[in-house]
């Protein structure tokens, strides 16, 4: 009972913007990526769409996975959240069955910061379990909370 009360209080405090406790719990990020301007976002979106077309070309044209990878990586660098999710997935779900969650986390963080619900949820899971990063249940609760606020039933369940 005491543990549940402490968890509920902590979750309530974490939801308060600017809370000193949140600032103490938050891992110190490496230099955050600057927010892309409108032109960069438009270019990133175009690169992402072109990357998807290179993976799934029109009938009669061969896929070009190398070109697709370059385009999607550039789109991710420019701030396209969907491209960042694909890049994270490339580290989490490799064809040979291996995983590199530590390499996926920076991409998930960038997409999560933009409000991408699935990125917030996956990031919370990795932080909660310490998969590829230091285990920090309180910081995971922050990401679960953000995903829950955006409608993720799974995140709402995790918080409950």
Q: What's the SSE blueprint?
A:
Blueprint: H1 2-14, H2 20-25, H3 38-55, H4 65-78, H5 81-92, H6 101-113, H7 117-129, H8 137-149, H9 153-159
Question: How does this structure look, described?
Answer:
With 160 residues, this protein is mostly helical. Helices cover 68% and strands 0% of the residues. It has nine helices and no strands. Helix 4 (65-78) crosses helix 5, helix 5 (81-92) runs antiparallel to helix 6 and helix 8 (137-149) crosses helix 9. The longest helix is centred in the N-terminal third of the chain and has 18 residues, at 38-55. It starts with a helix and ends with a helix. The relative contact order is 0.11. The model is unreliable at 1-31 (pLDDT under 50).
Structural category: mainly alpha
Number of extended strands: 0
Backbone CA Rg: 18 Å
Let me know the largest β-sheet: none
Strand residue content? under 5%
First CA to last CA: what distance? 14 Å
State the low-pLDDT regions, or none: 1-31
Helix % is: 55-70%
Note the total helix count: 9
SSE series: HHHHHHHHH
Average pLDDT metric: 83
| Global geometry | globular
């Amino acid at each position: 009972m005491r543990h549940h009360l402490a968890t509920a209080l902590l979750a309530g405090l974490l939801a308060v913007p600017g809370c000193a406790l949140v600032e103490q719990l938050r891992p110190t990020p490496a230099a955050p990526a600057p927010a892309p301007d409108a032109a960069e976002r438009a270019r990133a979106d175009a690169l992402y769409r072109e990357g998807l077309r290179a993976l799934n070309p029109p009938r009669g044209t061969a896929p070009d996975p190398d070109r697709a990878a370059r385009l999607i990586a550039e789109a991710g660098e420019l701030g396209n959240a969907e491209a960042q999710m694909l890049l994270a997935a490339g580290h989490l779900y490799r064809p040979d069955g291996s995983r590199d969650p530590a390499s996926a986390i920076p991409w998930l963080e960038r997409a999560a910061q933009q409000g991408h619900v699935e990125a917030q949820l996956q990031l919370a899971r990795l932080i909660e379990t310490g998969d590829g990063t230091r285990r920090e249940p309180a910081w995971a609760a922050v990401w679960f909370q953000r995903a829950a606020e955006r409608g993720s039933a799974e995140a709402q369940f995790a918080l409950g």
